[in-house]
Amino acid sequence: MWNVISETAADLDLGGGGALLLPDLTDSAGAVKHLVLGAGKDGNVYVVDRDSMGRFNSSKNNIWQELDGAVVRGMRSTPAYFNSHVYLSDRDSPLKAFTFSGALLAASPTSQTAATFVYRERCRSCRRMVRPTASCGPRRRLIPVFTRL
């Protein structure tokens, strides 16, 4: 990410979601790609070629694919992969399935759940479930938890 300083200052860093190591995928030219997928609080999904991770560039990202705003409310969980589909759940939203074709991820979800998964945190002091913005005493020590509505 070339804008790491501004994203960190706005708490939109990539560290909100975990990395997903993908199985070997073949692109449209027949070349086998070794990819890893990640998404963060900025709402973007990044697919990186593990064999050519680029290098830091102050003006652009040297990555295989970027989907801007694919998870609008930001990722705070690890994505999952099964049968050419990647499953992503952004904050307080339905679980979304994106399909891989030719080693490229579809720009929009191919399906999503009817249920919404709400991001809540459990207070370590009183064990009460609260929204991340809620106050829970003078020392706010919260544990992230996903719940289904």
Protein structure class? mainly beta
Mean pLDDT: 80
Helical segment count = 1
**Which regions have little confidence, pLDDT < 50, spanning 5+ residues?**
138-147
Choose one word for the global shape: globular
What proportion of the residues form beta strands (DSSP E)?
A: 35-45%
Comma- or semicolon-separated keywords:
single chain; 149 residues; mainly beta; Lipocalin; seven-stranded antiparallel β-sheet; four-stranded antiparallel β-sheet; 1 helix; 4% helix; 40% strand
Describe this entry's structure for a reader.
The structure is a single chain. This protein has 149 residues and is mainly beta. It has one domain: Lipocalin. It is built from one helix and 13 strands. The strands form three sheets. Strands 7, 8, 9, 10, 11, 12 and 13 form a seven-stranded antiparallel beta sheet that branches. A four-stranded antiparallel beta sheet has the order 1-4-5-6, with no helix packed on it. Strands 2-3 form a two-stranded antiparallel ribbon. A hairpin with a 5-residue loop joins strand 4 (35-39) and strand 5. The radius of gyration is 17 Å and the shape is globular. The relative contact order is 0.15. Mean pLDDT is 80; it is low at 138-147.
